[in-house]
Specification:
This protein has 119 residues and is α+β, with helices and mostly antiparallel strands. The protein contains 4 helices and 6 strands, in the order E-E-E-H-H-E-E-E-H-H. The protein has a domain of 71 residues: NE0471 N-terminal domain-like. The radius of gyration is 24 Å and the shape is globular.
Amino acid sequence: MSTSSVVTEMAAAKNVRVTDRTLVVELRDGRIVSVPLAWYPRLAEGSPGERRRWELLGPGIGIHWPDLDEDISVEGLLRGLPSGESAASLKTWRTTRHRPANRRLQPTKARRKTTRLRG
């Protein structure tokens, strides 16, 4: 009995484009995967500038959007899996998103009492 060995290469992203309606990922093997942007609420709510700032994870096994704190795996895209983020997590993200990142709650400065010396 003979068997043939098939060498499979892990799918890896090469380029990413986000339109108003779709996430389009070009893979290294030439395939292009396009999924509805609505599958990923953080991307859908991101500005065009935030959507353009992406990074490949490792050798392209995933995509990361640092401004949106979003990670999407190529495997998940190929399986047709939308975001698995819970409603509570998304709500928390939306709340913190509208606060400037460098704005931290500062304790109020105690007012200094000035006293006049009478002499």
